[in-house]
Each structure stands twice: as C-alpha cells, then as structure tokens.
Specification:
2 helices; alpha+beta
Length: about 130
C-alpha cells in the first residue's frame, strides 16, 4: 500500500512538472486588465467618466424607496446607490407626497420627473416615454 502511495506521489510530481514546462505566458493572451483599464471600468460603473459629455435628455427610469427611508433612483440607466450625482446631473430624493416625483438638476435648471418621463433640456419639454 505504501509503495502505491509513493508511486502515485512521484507520478503526480512528474506530471505536474511536465505540464509546468509546457506553460507559456504568451498563450494566455490577456487574462487580467491593466491599471488604466480597471480605472475606466470602475469609472463607468460609478457613472463618472473622464470627460463628462453634455446630457440633453434626462430619463427617470424609476426608483426604489428602502425601508431605511433612503431611495435609489435610476436616471439614464445609472443609479444613485453610491452618490446623488450622476456625471453633472444631481438627483434629489423622491417626494413623499402623492405625485411621487423626483427632482433632477443640471446646469442650474431643476425639473420634477415621474418614473418613465424624459426631460429634453434643449427644448424644456417633459414627455412620457413609457
């Protein structure tokens, strides 16, 4: 029995060294991201980009009010989970009254929006996009 264990141990060491010798880092292509790519991915996830593009249409996708009272709002496909700012857009807490609107501010202008509404900043119109 002991001979089998020793033989199996030697066989596994021999096989692993053979596999290790055949390993070439160039064959892996690219398994991980570099530091700059990781920073871009993290910035895109948080909604902050290196160059904040001008936003002309603001769509309130929806919101959820948590049991703690704090709300998470989705605007233009991004959320306010970490911050009330999405790029150069500021999102205020949803109102507690009947109309359930969320005020959004950009470039000194503020508009209340209901979920499913889009504010076209260039024309000033609010349209229902549901």
């Amino acid at each position: 029995m002991r001979v089998n264990i020793i033989f199996f141990g030697m066989f596994s060491i021999l096989c692993s060294s053979t596999l290790h010798a055949a390993y070439d880092a160039g064959d892996l292509k690219k398994l991980f991201t570099d530091k700059n790519q990781r920073a871009r991915i993290d910035a895109a996830r948080s909604g902050v980009t290196g160059t904040d593009r001008q936003v002309n249409k603001i769509k309130l996708d929806g919101y959820v009010t948590r049991s703690s009272g704090k709300s998470v709002v989705w605007v233009n496909g991004q959320n306010t989970l970490d911050s009330n700012a999405i790029g150069n857009l500021r999102v205020h807490q949803p109102s507690k009254d009947r109309d359930k609107r969320v005020r959004v501010s950009i470039d000194g202008q503020t508009r209340p929006l209901k979920p499913g509404e889009t504010w076209d900043k260039s024309t000033g119109k609010i349209i229902d996009t549901q």
